[in-house]
Amino acid sequence: ETLARLDRAHLIHPVSSWRDQEEHGPRLLSSGQGVWLTDMHGHTLLDGFAGLWCVNVGYGQDSVVKAATEQMTKLPYATGYFGFASEPAITLAARLAEVTPGDLNRVFFSQGGSDAVDSALRFIRFYQHARGMAGKRHVIGLARGYHGCTYAGAGLTALSVFHRDADVPLAWQHHIPSPDPYRHPAGEDGSAIIAASVASLRAKVAELGGPEHVAAFFCEPVQGSGGIVVPPRGWLTAMREACREMDILFVTDEVITGFGRTGPLFACEHEGVVPDMMTVAKGLTSGYAPMGAVFMSETIYSTIRDGSPPGVAIGHGQTYSAHPVSAAIALAVLDLYQNGVLENGVKAGAHLATRLAAMKDHPLVGDVRSAGMLAGIELVTDKKNKTKPAASLGISKKMAKAGYEQGVLFRAFGDDIIGLAPPLTCSVEETDLLCDRIEGVLNTLMN
Ligand code: PMP
User: Is the ipTM of this complex over 0.90?
Assistant: First the structure.
């Protein structure tokens, strides 16, 4: 009660209603183990969303806690400024270089996903300046994309709530349509969707004055916050090739899809695509500490370096860039991925896909889609016309209540999409239980 009162009086919650919070108070979680969370009332919940699609290795991993404790004891902080470094940051950079696609061997560590995206945007600017092409400055993203909430990240995001009263997108930020197979104007045929995306990219580039004015294209290999949009196979390759042809940097934002969420360590591996830059966060430390990263190719790195006069510093970095405790945690988490967690995610993800396919017959389910342990269920009130549920039905509120009663956490996007992103450590039995409970939630909506 005291906590609830203090919360209402003082704490501003991220991405929560300004008003409802003050009326209802916090949903306080107190402990976690494996894929299970316990709230302040002792109620247990199966975490079908891995926190905020980040706790990929599950809660209560002793090796991670040990790595953090040891690093905190030995050296809790070391700046990366002025050439200083810490052992875990260097080791992590080297180990990640071994597992990232292609020649993405250079890494800058941020504190989370938003500032990884922001950092990428700044490095892109440095790169175009270093090449003597400062006019190549426009950046294109996708409708329904989410890239964080710094000013530049929120502008690259194409979800209206993040634009409200914020004067974004910035003048150099633009969007082309989402490759959503369920609601695409070109229909559900994969090749038609791919052709339409490539055509929109080319048209946007032409509208902006041609490739000499466009620096980069950003995309999530599977769109997350826009409602789990899984583009057709071949889409990523086609967009990558179109960008290469036009000399536009192809940047994948793998903040959600990275670190096994869709099966392989990085989602671009599904198609063997190597981006010019890649942003990650979330699964990097699996939520045990804040950290993100931007990877760039050797070419981008050396171009920026060679274009800078000797002695001039990189004008970018934060107090907590490459934080040693976060880096030690990321190393312990990487060990877990490489020692069974990724494998388990693939197995559980295949089971999840089978269970979801069976839900397609539910009267309210218009579409189910998934990539590994990342899934979406789209609700409609009329399957043939794909009619979205009317706001007056209050479905998202009903789902939140039913989810709590069923003991399952998931995320509702608006009133029509249920998002699932359980820890990759979910057993097949827990995956079944998750799906049973989600079906329970769907059934309450029929009443
Ligand atoms: N990019 C993507 C694709 C994301 O999903 C998110 C967070 N949901 C971000 C960037 C921003 O990351 P963070 O919340 O860690 O700042």
Answer: yes
